[in-house]
């Protein structure tokens, strides 16, 4: 042990400081990489892929689809092969309101465009349940074509109104 301290006494203090900083940086990077590796090993996303593929098979690919879905509908588009336009969720409406936009005018505009679509897919059930206006409108106006674990598909071509 005394030999180590003698060696440290001989070395230049600038070299020691730089070496310490490099070791600290590499050590921190190693622990972060290890943390990411542990998280990826613990979480299995294979079921996520199967979910979106199965959901995509319930929708005819050539039909126009509107979605209130995770990741702005990109999972449905990428894994389910369903081109879709995104319906804003509660967070999106809140953000627009904070930006000073007229959220009610935005909602009215969105509702007028629903007739341009064939399906409305919902996977963000929390946002759907938090929007009673949308929930009531879809259930009162359109046929619920499919319902499963974490999703609803409304057929916008089949109106429930006479």
Write up this protein.
This protein is of the alpha/beta class and 162 residues long. 56% of the residues lie in helices and 17% in strands. The chain has eight helices and five strands. It has a five-stranded mixed beta sheet. The chain starts with a helix and ends with a strand.
Summarize this entry quickly.
Helices cover 56% and strands 17% of the residues. It contains 8 helices and 5 strands, in the order H-H-H-E-H-E-H-H-E-H-H-E-E.
Ordered list of secondary-structure elements with their pairings:
Blueprint: H1 2-10, H2 13-42, H3 46-57, E1 65-68, H4 74-78, E2 84-86, H5 90-98, H6 103-113, E3 119-122, H7 125-129, H8 132-141, E4 142-148, E5 151-159
Largest sheet: 5 strands, mixed
Helix content: 55-70%
H and E string = HHHEHEHHEHHEE
What is the overall shape?
A: elongated
Specify Rg, calculated over alpha carbons: 27 Å
Distance between the termini: 91 Å
Strand composition percent:
15-25%
Counting DSSP E segments of at least 2 residues, the number of strands comes to: 5
Name the average pLDDT. 89
What is the subunit organization of this protein? single chain
Low-confidence stretches: none
* Widest beta sheet: strand line-up: 2-1-3-5-4
Count of alpha and pi helical runs:
8
Helix-and-strand structural type: alpha/beta
Task: Provide key terms for this protein.
17% strand; alpha/beta; 8 helices
């Amino acid at each position: 042990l005394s030999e180590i301290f003698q060696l440290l006494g001989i070395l230049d203090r600038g070299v020691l400081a730089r070496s310490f900083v490099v070791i600290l940086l590499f050590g921190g990077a190693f622990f972060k990489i290890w943390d990411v590796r542990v998280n990826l090993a613990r979480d299995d996303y294979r079921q996520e892929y199967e979910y979106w593929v199965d959901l995509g098979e319930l929708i005819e690919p050539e039909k126009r689809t509107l979605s209130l879905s995770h990741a702005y509908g990109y999972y449905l588009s990428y894994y389910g092969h369903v081109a879709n336009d995104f319906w804003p969720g509660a967070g999106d409406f809140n953000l627009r309101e904070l930006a000073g936009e007229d959220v009610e005018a935005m909602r009215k505009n969105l509702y007028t465009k629903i007739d341009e679509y064939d399906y409305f897919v919902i996977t963000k059930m929390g946002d759907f349940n938090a929007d009673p206006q949308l929930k009531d409108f879809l259930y009162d106006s359109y046929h619920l074509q499919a319902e499963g674990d974490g999703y609803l598909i409304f057929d916008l071509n089949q109106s429930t109104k006479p």
